[in-house]
């Protein structure tokens, strides 16, 4: 396999947005390091699947170490892994809080730190994180405090990292989705959830994958939070 082929790491890669991102990058002939708790091995020799909890530092180390050993480099990191627990704020338990922080923030921290260290060796790379439109645009009737706390933190970190690493050739961006059709949302809820968006419908996983690919091929964009949310961030 040619070492000139680009390599992307995708977390939360087994279903929904993550699976669509893997498919989109493979169409562009990227080699993939795919992670999720439940991911199964792939028959495609250009896809390395590593199962494990991304909030565990040991999993993050395996993803980067085994990815570099197999493919020789890391060009792009897509921080897609995330969970959402929808409850009124006062009903959240300590376990809810720990679970959301573990995936949404701790998972981002460890894998990004390791990926950026690898990118520094080549003076190039791109980190893009999937955050949430509700991080900065709360919706009446939606329970978004833990999403705002964690995904909003990632938006802020995106801007900080973009500035810190700009002169080292590493770009850092985020995509902030609205509510997307994934296995997280039962089909019978789609109409009601679609009404939260000015465009009147939910987004598709491919909409987010397309936005990530756009940012990955836009060399003059860094520190950007790209809202792909059916108009939610513009107002209601």
Automatic annotation (TrEMBL):
SUPFAM superfamilies: NAD(P)-binding Rossmann-fold domains (SSF51735). GO terms for molecular function: oxidoreductase activity. Pfam families: adh_short_C2. Keywords: Oxidoreductase. Gene3D superfamilies: NAD(P)-binding Rossmann-like Domain. Belongs to the short-chain dehydrogenases/reductases (SDR) family. This is Short-chain dehydrogenase/reductase SDR. It comes from Paraburkholderia phytofirmans (strain DSM 17436 / LMG 22146 / PsJN) (Burkholderia phytofirmans). The lineage of its organism: Bacteria, Pseudomonadati, Pseudomonadota, Betaproteobacteria, Burkholderiales.
